[in-house]
Amino acid sequence: MSPRRLSRVAVSATTLVLAGSLAACGSSGPSGGGGGGDAAQVWALQDTTLNPIEQASIDRFNESSKVGDVELQTFGNDPYKQRLRTAINSANAPDVFFNWGGGNLKEYVDAGKIEDLTPMLDENPELRDAFLPSVLAGAEIDGKQYGLPMRGVQPVLLFNNKEVLASAGIDGSPATWDDLLADVAALKAKGITPIALAGSQSWTELMWAEYLLDRVGGPEVFQNIRDGKNGGWAQPEVLQAMTMLKELIDAGAFGEDFASVGYDVGGASTILAEGQAGFHLMGSWEFTNQLGQSPDFVKAGNLGYGPFPAVTGGKGDPSNLVGNVSNFYSITKDSDAKEAAEEYVKTALTDETYVSDLVEAGDVMPITGVRDQLAAGDNADYTTTIYDQVANAQNFQLSWDQDLQADVATKMLTELQNFFLGEQTPEGFVSALAG
Amino acid sequence: MAAQGRERPSGWYLTPALTFFGVFAVLPMVLVVYLSFTDWDGFGFPSPSGAGNWSRLVSDPEVRHSLGLTLVFMVLGWVVQTPIALLIGVWAAGRQRNRAVLSSIFFLPVLLSTAAIALLWHSVLDPNFGLTQQLPVLDRFNFLGDPSIVVYTVAWVLTWQFVPFHTLLYQSAARGIPVSIYEAATIDGAGRYRQFFRITLPLLRYTVITSTVLMLVGSVTTFDTILILTNGGPGTATRIAPLYMYQVGFSGFEFGYASTIAVVLLVLGAGLSLAVTRLTGFRAMTSQQEGL
Amino acid sequence: MSLIQSGTPTARVPATTEPAGPVTEAPRRRRLGRERPNWLAGVLSVIWLLLVLVPIYYMVNGSFRTRQDYLTDNPLRPPADPTLDNYESVFTGGFGRYFVNNIVVTVGTVAIVVALTVPAAYAVARNAEPLVQRGFSIMLIGLAVPAQATIIPVYLLINQLHLYDTLLAIILPTAAFALPVSLLVMTNSLRDIPNELYEAQTLDGAGAFGTLRHLVLPLAKPAITTVAVFTAMGAWNGFLFPLVLTQSADQRTLTVGLTTFQSQFGTNVPGLLAAVTLSLLPIFFVYLFGRRYLLSGLTAGFGK
Known about the structure:
The complex is a heterotrimer. By secondary structure, chain A is α/β, with parallel strands linked by helices. Chain A contains 22 helices and 13 strands.
């Protein structure tokens, strides 16, 4: 054999080894599933309490399904959007996916990725009628329906630890901003962190800005920001709200440690439950979480809650809510298991057991006529309060980070975190975002 | 049969490696330069945007901040890790039994993955439920939440993670120093510290260079530790350049602008590679043995 | 990627695993050991020992606690009521699957890197053609290039190849970015093979392939070990590629899996500690039984 040929043999041998190892790995890859073959993939957020309920719903569906199976995949809150965006262009895109509605969903709709569910609702009017119209509107874009509510409404409430408040001589939720400032001072005097805050995840800080801006200037101010009207972030109400928030931070309301406390990892909730803080501003899912993580705390009746305080002289109605209107399931346009996906979304979300499981877990499904069920349920006090708040709210603003474009939202969250750390002034915050 | 038997391999032997590297490393590097001149939000295809991203980059204070941080971690890492690794390495080179046992414990962090180390320290340093809260003095600090401390916290965790490896380098190098040199020095009446500075340190200079280069390269590429430990926070206190790129890309979904930041990182990395290969002269392949 | 990324050998050195005999004379060294003890070094070592051991002790100890116990008691005290529940929930949480995936990724990456590096290094070491040397130079530029900087185009590429959410998607770029270091280590070691040995092969009438098999491969074993150990650590630790290039739990690697546990367990810190401990155990056993091999493999290619 000539040397030349020999070296060619060597090269092909190497190539063979390489190809062999690739093939080995390749075959071990997809056999694991691409997530599980033909079943329609349903993506949701990781949630100790809700995931079993979702799984049970899927199991029930699969048992009787004639159009194929569905499979649940769950993700942590923070990486979820990244996963969704990177997967949506691939062959491994989900068939049904969890979302917040609003501007976030709109980006996907504009990209032509989402199935229009309007025909489904037109064919099944009883399905449309099953949901509260105000909540259904959260996933309505340009007059078309792109998602159906898959879990309870989630307004943000001011939670408290009743025992801690009592020990500082405070009776119940503050009605006005000034009351809150007084409560903060009282708790501080007792050596307790007044307000728990999971500051390592800045969407928790965002809730304070959202409510304050609403109370100070009414819902139109943010709508202008979102739609790029009237000067956006430069509207004077923004500066006013941020200045008030600055006063609260400077008063030491959130203690010293908030910047490294996480919500996903349960930090802030545990701080409240363990009596290390008096208040905690959080979405209504906080109740479900506390029930799961610190059941004794909830069962002893120590978890209090109330609406965000009013601001005297402010333009926003005290009944206004911010938060997640609900979470929605949407179907991807390119789904290769669309039949199962559609059937699941059509039948499973209004399924009696699913709804009652959620109610039992403290979730308030936006289903018409659910109030009686709530009143008869385990946590009637809490769930009916939520239901009534939503039903009576003049306006329900979706969380800003879900309603704004991703790039603006990311920048806003960073600026906000710096703001809470005292590294950004109210004026600096405004000019960073307006500029 | 080739009786003349030339053993020299043909260039084809390099081809598979080069091709593979070309497809999965060089092609992405070229693509990232292209992407830096486009806008892309993850849907559909990138659309050309001229030099828009580049002019934004020049006026983006966050880029300067994050590159500055990378430099801080580079310097801080070297200043802290080198003396520790050098001292422990030389000490562990001794053949005494207790040193052997202790040094095998010193190397334990090498066995933990980056993610594991970051998660472990995250829970050790948790300001509410962490280990440091139970210890005197340490409980007064919020290691992960205080912007003025967190840089040092991260530098410490990186030290904990990487010192064992560098210790290992120094240990095996120190073991290579002929004992006779020390014996001669002892006879001349040189004390231990003089021996360290006059004999050990000069003889370890190549190892110092190796270790330094590894540290420099390491700090350009440090990423996962900070992502898991602080996610760049609080605020932007630890948001180094690669992390900023990642967040612009995978949270803000501005893949075009993220690519622009990535190009800066690429240039820095390639520059460092060139500097390393030129300055340390390993390509010239002069044997290091002479230096010993 | 961390270790790989931190790793660029500069100094060339023969890839023998241990310093050769004549240099270190252990028995004579002992005479030095008889001198007065080195207090400064001793004290520093003990401090460092504590800094290394306390977090690890905290981790192992904490993993046997209940959540409530952890929250109320000093985390350094041994658990009053040790429990294995945390380990159980880690296993039911998918640990086994993540672990197997990590092994597949690691083995696959090492196989590719070794298979590509040995012939390539042989060419670089023995073929002075400008084209070959230029190819070598190109690959060396990748030495310090941070892999993260290419994550966006790599994601695009993997997607185009329809490999998104497969283990192969992690293996391919990980291997590519491990190549420069490996090639450098390997080339240096092949250059140290005395020219006479190569010439002897020529006299025996062996061609390039025969030389590769009978001379290069046996003599390159220490360098192959170094490359394998180093690549394996990089692949085992890899975080960004698995994070971005896979999504389903079936394809999740251990590193990403650990962070999933973090949000799954919430404030059940003991659960997380159990997962971290478990992720250490297998390597710890490798370390126990193959310490010398592993440690010398890590440094052999890097100069002494």
